[in-house]
Each structure stands twice: as structure tokens, then as C-alpha cells.
Write a structure and sequence with these properties.
Blueprint: H1 4-7, E1 13-18, H2 20-25, H3 27-33, E2 36-39, H4 45-48, H5 58-69, E3 73-81, H6 94-112, E4 118-123, H7 138-143, H8 147-158, E5 164-169, H9 175-188, E6 197-200, E7 203-205, H10 211-223, E8 227-236, H11 251-270, E9 275-280, H12 313-319
Parallel strand pairs: 1-2, 1-9, 2-3, 3-4, 4-5, 5-6, 6-8, 7-8, 8-9
Helix pairs in contact: 11-12
């Protein structure tokens, strides 16, 4: 069987979010099927920059070296987020924090930039739970309502011109939030195109969203002249508010799961003129972030390979194009 990266070589890169355990559990799958990785956590500012104001690169280095040895791209993830930020930096003055961020962007590019052609510059800045526009965060509180504009301007001034700068968010297909994202990107790109692309996370489930909502979002973001990456895709067996726990995958749900993946990838192929990368948020069901969210200790089976690293029907549904 061909690998996913061969099947989709004329469409887009195929990526996976990985961590150190992935190299133990999923090494062969990664080498065969993927040509792009995202560090699940190891490149985040709050992970590499410790409380003593010094860097710890060992986790990121391990994944970077794996990617480089296997001719993979790295999606840089991420510079500015309300989570996994080194919150101790905000005890400093505004000017000092800005200098720390400036140094951070430069340091990360110098260390990983040779195989990191795109960065999530700002992650999840838009509020999706109220009428508010931007999510409350220390970045917003310190640098004001236009902090995203400032951060993208900073990244643009530091990074080489060939590195693409992305805004990344979830629920990016829900019309109310989608329109806020569009508003934000239009504001940032008002005077100069600073945002190169939109990261559509695509954390979806078997029941929501409709495929038409996703298509509408792709078309709208593409109309802004943006490149599109599907950055964190998984297909949950459960609605977000569904608290049930199953001991093993339900065969009917597995059938729906395969159908859903097939429908999504059909759309991604249809819009491959705009889509450069489709990344899954994990490799196999052995470990996924959905094991503990939104229900603790619940298997969810959202990926293409099962807990024993065997292909699932979902994999075959997107291989047969």
C-alpha cells in the first residue's frame, strides 16, 4: 500500500502532530505516510522558555531532528497564545516583554527555520463564547486591542520573506466566529499583507459541522487571498456535550467515521488550489488529546490508525481517490 504522502503528493502535504512518544509508538507510520509534522507542545513558548528565563530545547530538538532526517517539513506552532505561554514574563515591563518576544521569534527561526517554512504566529485570539471580539489574554491586556497586528508585524520584520505567517484557530467554520476571524485578518492585512494564511484546525465530530459550513469557510478565507492549512484535524465519535463512555469502538460509528473522513478529504482535494497542508492532530488512537477532553479518561478513536497502529476504515476512505 502506498503512503498517504504519495497518494496526495499532487494535492498537499500530509502532516501529523507528534510528541516524543510518537517516535516510540508511531515511528513506522510517520515515516511511511507523512511529510510534515507539527510539534504538539514542544515548540510552544511556554514549554521551551522556562521560569528561569532560559531555554530548554531538548524536546523540540528531538522532533526537529526526526523531521530533518526524514525530509519532513515542520509547521512552527506557535509564537503567541493565551495558553502555554511563559506567564512569568508578564512581571516585566511592556518594553521588556516585547523584547523577549522579539528574541524568541529570532531564536526559534535560527534554530529550526531551515525546515520550518510556516509559523502559527498568533493562535486562538478570537473569542467564541460571547459577543466580545478578542479573547482575554495577557497579550491583550499588555499590548491592547491591536496586539495581533503588532505581533504579525514583528514576525514579518524578523523572519525571512519566504516564511509564511499563519493565524490559527478552532471553530473556524461557525459563521459567528468565522466572521470575527475575517474581521481580524482584514485588520492585520489592512496596510500590508502580514497574514499569509489561515490555519483551520478542523476539530470536528461525526455530527457537526456540516460539510457545507466547512466549504463556505474555505471559500471565504480563500477570497481574502490567504493560503489555507488544515492544521489540527481529528474526527471525534462524540458530540462535544456527549458524556457517554464506550469500552470499544462502535462498528456503526466506525462506519460513519470513515465516511466523514472521505467527505472531508474530498472537499480538501476540491479546494487544493488553496490548501497546502492537511495535518492530523495525532497519529494513532493509542494516544490523542481527546482521551482527556472534554471527558476525562475516555477513548475517542478520532484518527486513521487504531490503538495497535493498524489502518482503520477511515484511512482506506481517503486513500481511494
Amino acid at each position: 500500500m502506498l503512503g498517504l504522502k504519495e497518494v496526495y503528493k499532487d494535492y498537499f502535504k500530509i502532516g501529523a502532530a507528534i510528541n516524543s512518544l510518537s517516535l516510540q509508538y508511531d515511528f513506522n507510520i510517520l515515516k511511511k505516510h507523512f511529510n510534515s509534522i507539527t510539534c504538539e507542545n514542544q515548540m510552544k513558548y511556554g514549554v521551551v522558555f522556562r521560569d528561569n528565563f532560559e531555554y530548554e530545547f531538548s524536546g523540540a530538538d528531538e522532533l526537529y531532528e526526526f523531521a530533518k532526517a526524514n525530509n519532513m517539513d515542520v509547521r512552527g506552532h506557535n509564537f503567541v497564545w493565551h495558553n502555554q505561554t511563559p506567564f512569568h514574563i508578564f512581571t516585566k515591563s511592556k518594553e521588556e516583554v516585547w523584547q523577549l518576544l522579539t528574541d524568541h521569534i529570532r531564536i526559534m527561526n535560527e534554530r529550526y527555520g531551515d525546515i520550518t517554512p510556516y509559523w502559527d504566529v498568533v493562535n486562538e485570539a478570537v473569542e467564541d463564547k460571547s459577543s466580545a471580539f478578542l479573547r482575554k489574554s495577557p497579550w491583550l491586556m499588555m499590548f491592547g486591542e491591536d496586539y495581533c497586528n503588532k505581533v504579525f508585524g514583528l514576525a514579518k520584520s524578523i523572519l525571512p520573506d519566504n516564511i509564511q505567517l499563519f493565524y490559527n484557530d478552532y471553530n473556524e467554520y461557525i459563521p459567528e466566529k468565522r466572521d470575527k476571524i475575517v474581521k481580524l485578518i482584514k485588520s492585520i492585512n489592512r496596510d500590508e499583507k502580514l497574514v499569509s494564511g489561515i490555519g483551520m484546525q478542523c476539530h470536528v465530530n461525526l455530527y457537526y459541522p456540516s460539510i457545507d459550513l466547512v466549504k463556505e469557510a474555505i471559500e471565504l478565507y480563500a477570497s481574502l487571498g490567504l493560503r489555507i492549512h488544515i492544521t489540527e484535524m481529528d474526527v471525534s465519535h462524540f458530540r462535544f456535550d456527549d458524556k457517554q463512555i464506550l469500552n470499544m469502538p462502535n462498528p456503526k460509528l466506525e462506519e460513519l467515521h470513515a465516511k466523514a473522513y472521505g467527505e472531508y478529504f474530498k472537499v480538501f482535494r476540491e479546494y487544493s488550489e488553496y490548501i497546502d497542508n492537511v495535518t492530523l492532530w495525532g497519529v494513532s488512537d493509542k494516544y490523542t488529546w481527546l482521551d482527556d477532553f472534554p471527558v476525562k479518561n475516555r477513548k475517542n478513536w478520532p484518527l486513521l490508525f487504531d490503538e495497535n497502529n493498524q489502518p482503520k476504515p477511515a484511512l482506506y476512505s481517503i486513500m481511494d481517490i
